[in-house]
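In response to the reviewer comment on reproducibility (Comment 2.3), we provide here a single inverse folding case reported in full, input and output, so that an independent group could reproduce the run without further information from us. The structure tokens appear first.
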């Protein structure tokens, strides 16, 4: 009998009719309070009473009867009517509860504390506590049904949940987000690769345009002066790693800021470079780099007032000769890293050279066009002081041996390459080529100790008069792209006798308008040679096969003009080509 009275207490009380127009009903969060709803609840009560009677007849306890009543109420046919607005409203509420961390009754976010704190009921559904309490109040403060599953609960069944934040995870969205991130990373890699490829294409296109322009100018020059010039084209360029049997393997690639001149000691695997120390009043120093270890670099302080070092010559036995604008020709010990000899000069020195250690002779090319010869055993005064053919500075010196075995010095100044008799028997040097007032010689490549093959580099003078030859006028007046220098040319000079030379093939390229850049001749194979030069348009090094300037090859670009270029061989025959720009130093091992 107590169970029957409990079943009757579950019927809806009168306050339900009074609150049927409340805001909760308008939102579709509770029952409509109609007669049909009351009748359905009455039916549930009758079902509950029948369940109680069946439970008593079987001898069940009073608690078991109450539980059976609750289960019956949650599964009876009146479940759809308990959700306001019918099945559609129940489905919408369930969907909102699943996909958003909001109370499914008021659709407002629940809180971790306060009246609307997150709470749940025995069926497991989660609501704001104030919404559950208001729902119970409307149902008589005794019991009510869950708005989602219609299972009955009481006020004491409301459980507070202690959670600072509730986030409903959507695995599908997480997968989509992860997939999007992967796609973004993949696209970023593609964009980076495409950007590099575009840069390479633009560089090749610009180079092709430059080469085509050079070829056209060469053809015009050929028709103008009757001479034949080879036309190195981008289409004929081979890969930089090989040129017939000669290939270049990058051995050192270093960041080297502010250097202008370098020397290579191939026997001891040492690079010596000159630059200015950091700071406004920084002195000029030498940097000694071990080619076997890029990280091993030592700074060598130079004597005060040395000023800019313009040339470095590596001598046998582990010493280096350098010429500076401080009017000094100095000898540096690579072992002790100190200056062991200084020769004071009447004018700034721009170049230096020396024969093998047995001769004890060292040479300095001065800014006033003079050549001075010193003996390292007696440096108080020069052994010979020789005047040049002009007052133009001597920017290049090579110590060579002629066909008879006599020691000579090959020099270059603006007027062209000259040969000096350093024994003092000749008062003036001999000009190897005829005079040409419309050109300036700015570089001379040689392969010491032999002087059988030379390459002189020229650029046209900027102040040409109107009566110059058509070819020379064309070379100087043809517009050159900005930053690509100007059109110059390289000429092969070959020995034809003990003291006679002849001009050979000529090749045009883009050269610096102001700098006196270095160039090199690289021997390889059976008496074959390559000519290496820093091309202004390429911002890198080109090589040609001599003596016809065939098979032009481009080494990896520096993206900056080349300041110095040196070739050196070790006693074992290993060759090294050093390339120096404003911020990079590269050394290639030349395999032959």
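Designed residues, in position order:
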């Amino acid at each position: 009998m107590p169970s029957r009275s409990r079943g009757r207490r579950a019927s809806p009380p009168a306050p339900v009719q009074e609150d049927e127009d409340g805001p909760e009903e308008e939102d579709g969060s509770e029952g409509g309070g109609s007669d049909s709803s009351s009748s359905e609840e009455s039916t549930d009560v009758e079902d509950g009473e029948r369940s109680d009677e069946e439970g008593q007849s079987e001898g069940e306890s009073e608690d078991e009867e109450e539980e059976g009543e609750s289960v019956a109420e949650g599964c009876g046919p009146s479940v759809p009517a308990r959700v306001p607005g019918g099945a559609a409203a129940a489905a919408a509420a369930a969907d909102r509860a699943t996909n958003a961390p909001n109370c499914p009754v008021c659709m407002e976010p629940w809180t971790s504390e306060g009246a609307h704190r997150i709470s749940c009921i025995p069926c497991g559904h989660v609501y704001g506590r104030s919404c559950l309490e208001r729902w119970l109040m409307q149902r008589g403060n005794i019991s009510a049904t869950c708005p989602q599953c219609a299972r009955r609960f009481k006020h004491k069944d409301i459980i507070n949940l202690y959670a600072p934040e509730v986030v409903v995870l959507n695995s599908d969205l997480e997968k989509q987000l992860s997939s999007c991130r992967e796609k973004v990373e993949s696209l970023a890699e593609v964009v980076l690769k495409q950007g590099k490829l575009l840069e390479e294409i633009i560089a090749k296109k610009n180079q092709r345009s430059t080469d085509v322009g050079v070829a056209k100018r060469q053809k015009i020059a050929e028709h103008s002066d009757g001479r034949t010039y080879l036309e190195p084209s981008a289409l004929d360029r081979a890969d930089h790693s090989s040129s017939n049997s000669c290939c270049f393997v990058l051995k050192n690639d270093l960041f080297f800021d502010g250097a202008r001149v370098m020397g290579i000691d191939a026997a001891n695997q040492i690079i010596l470079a000159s630059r200015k120390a950091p700071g406004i009043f920084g002195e000029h120093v030498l940097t000694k780099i071990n080619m076997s270890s890029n990280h091993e670099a030592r700074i060598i302080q130079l004597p005060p007032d040395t000023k800019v070092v313009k040339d470095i010559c590596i001598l046998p036995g582990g010493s280096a000769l350098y010429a500076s604008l401080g009017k000094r020709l100095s000898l540096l010990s690579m072992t002790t890293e100190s200056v062991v000899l200084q020769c004071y000069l009447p004018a700034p020195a721009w170049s230096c050279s020396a024969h093998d250690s047995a001769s004890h002779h060292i040479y300095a090319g001065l800014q006033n066009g003079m050549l001075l010869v010193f003996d390292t055993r007696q440096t108080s005064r020069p052994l010979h002081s020789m005047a040049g053919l002009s007052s133009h500075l001597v920017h290049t010196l090579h110590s060579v041996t002629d066909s008879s075995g006599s020691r000579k010095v090959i020099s270059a100044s603006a007027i062209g390459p000259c040969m000096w008799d350093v024994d003092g028997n000749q008062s003036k040097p001999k000009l190897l080529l005829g005079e040409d007032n419309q050109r300036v010689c700015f570089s001379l490549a040689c392969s010491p100790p032999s002087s059988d093959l030379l390459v002189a580099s020229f650029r046209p003078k900027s102040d040409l008069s109107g009566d110059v030859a058509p070819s020379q006028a064309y070379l100087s007046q043809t517009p050159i792209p900005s930053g690509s220098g100007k059109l110059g040319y390289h000429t092969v000079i070959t020995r034809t006798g003990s003291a006679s030379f002849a001009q050979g093939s000529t090749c045009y390229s883009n050269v610096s308008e102001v700098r006196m850049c270095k160039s090199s001749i690289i021997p390889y194979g059976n008496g074959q040679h390559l000519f290496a030069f820093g091309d202004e348009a390429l911002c890198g090094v080109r090589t040609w096969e001599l003596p016809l300037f065939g098979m032009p090859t481009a080494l990896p670009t520096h993206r900056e003009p080349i300041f110095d270029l040196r070739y050196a061989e070790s006693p074992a025959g290993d060759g090294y080509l050093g390339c120096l720009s404003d911020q990079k130093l590269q050394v290639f091992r030349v395999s032959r």
